[in-house]
Amino acid sequence: MQRLILPFIMTVALLAGAAAWAADDTAEIALKDHQFVPQVLTIPAGKQVKLTVKNEDATPAEFESHDFRVEKVVPGNGQIVVYIGPLQAGTYGFFDDFHEDTTKGKLVVK
Amino acid sequence: MLATLVIVFREIIEAGLIVGIVLAASKGVRGRGLWVGYGVLGGALGACLVAAFAGQIGSLFQGAGQDLFNAAILLLAVVMLAWHNVWMASHGRAMAKEMREVGAAVAAGERPLFALAIVVGVAVLREGSEIVLFLYGIAAAGGASTVSMLIGGVLGLVGGVAVSALMYFGLLAIPAHRLFAVTSGLIALLAAGLAAQAVVFLQQAGYVGELTRTVWNTSSILSQDSLFGRLLHTLIGYSDKPNGAQLVAYIAVVAVIVALMKIVYASHERARIAKRAVPAE
User: Fold this and answer.
1) Which of A24, A67, A98 to mutate to test the interface with B (most CBs of B within 10 A)?
2) Sheet of A35-37: strands edge to edge?
3) CATH class of residue range A21-109
4) Which of B71, B95, B230, B239 has the highest count of CB atoms within 10 angstroms of its CB?
5) Do the bridges between strand A70-74 and strand A61-65 make them parallel or antiparallel, or are there none, so unpaired?
6) To the nearest 5 percent, what fractions of chain B are helix, strand and coil?
7) In whole angstroms, what is the distance from residue B129 CA to residue B135 CA?
């Protein structure tokens, strides 16, 4: 059983080594005082978008959306990148899972 | 306090249901409590480490470190669950026979407890690290909220353990000769659900760009974020808006596990019949 683990880790490392393809479109959003800046983010429909989330607060956040499946921890004073879509036109919600009631934003896809 | 309660409750349930299935699947095996205990302990320690190094893990692989880490440990759990089921397919029949002949007390035998401990560890690590990060955020914000945070955390923990225990005892109510069939089925679906989750992590890291279209949307019938939706999501991988790649992973894992179980079972049956055909000296 233990013998299986090393090849497994190597496969994962290999996968990780293969570069993720570059998305054509990028977008950026920040978290400041537990609010999204901007609160409404607009991206194009039908395209994969590389979204950078910057956390300017000292405490960790979790960038999450049920409408477009994303779940990723953003360390305090850190930033992450997530790939979104391609999505159809519409309005999608997202939030900080650690402050679900107060920290919300909207993604407009058109 | 309420926010802490809700988050802790939610994460404990998600890990607890998996621990419950593992405990039910290993019913009657000597030493299972110890192995599951190792899994929980290792997972809890791992959760603290992952939370502490969240920034460093995240910045690996051009920012995809966190997603790759999640996908990797999920896939590790999938392999371990598959291993358990294949093992059961080869030994389950003999075990059931043994149980009837010598009584349940000796049903022990070798079991892939190591694999199950890893599954428990992965579940606790994933959900635990979210709890640690969340609680750290509240504690770091300071103020008099620490006591209410502790109360909320303890209530959430108790509630989550209670729900998980309920499911465990529900499984144990299944007659012994059917229990392993039920737990094997549950484990196959659990593994498929974890594989589909791993796909989501690879997608958000930009590694899987095919089949991203949502296949159906049942969020108005059963939202994945309702309590029942979450339970089903954890247990059998229910998703209210699955995309093509998630479905492919789900179906592929179920198919591979069922096929492996059939192959292993058939070869054991052949060996058994062949042995019987040779007249005993």
Assistant:
1) A98
2) A35-37, A25-32, A49-55, A79-84
3) mainly beta
4) B71
5) antiparallel
6) 80, 0, 20
7) 10
Q: By CA distance, what is A84's nearest residue in B?
A: B204
Q: How many angstroms separate the CA atoms of A81 and B114, rounded?
A: 35
Buried b (16+ CB within 10 A) or exposed e, A49-86: bbbebbbebebbbbbbbbbbbbbbbbbbebbbbbbbbb
- CB A75 to CB B209 under 8 A? no
Per-residue pLDDT of chain A (110 residues), as tens digits, is 556 666 666 666 655 544 444 556 899 999 999 999 999 999 999 889 999 999 999 999 999 998 888 999 999 999 999 999 889 999 999 999 999 888 999 999 99
B226 contacts chain A (CB < 8 A): no
How many residue pairs from chains A and B have C-beta atoms closer than 8 A? Answer: 109
Mutation test of the interface with chain B: which of A50, A83, A100, choosing the one with the most B Cβ atoms within 10 A?
A83
- Integer angstrom CA distances of residue B66 from A34, A61, A65, B248: 22, 14, 17, 23
Of B3, B114, B205, the CB nearest to A20: B205
Q: pTM of the predicted model, to two decimals?
A: 0.86
Segments making up each domain of chain A, as ranges:
21-109
Residues of chain B in contact with residue A31, where contact means CB-CB under 8 angstroms, are none
> Distance between CA atoms of B153 and B163, rounded to whole angstroms?
15
Tokens describing residue A6: 């090393």
Which chain A residues in 76-95 lie under 8 Å from chain B, judged by CB atoms? Answer: 76, 78-86
In whole angstroms, give the CA distance from residue A27 to residue B11. Answer: 30
- Tell me what ipTM this predicted complex has: 0.82
Residue A56 CA to residue A40 CA, distance in Å, equals: 18
Backbone angles phi, psi at A58, to 5 degrees: -80, -20
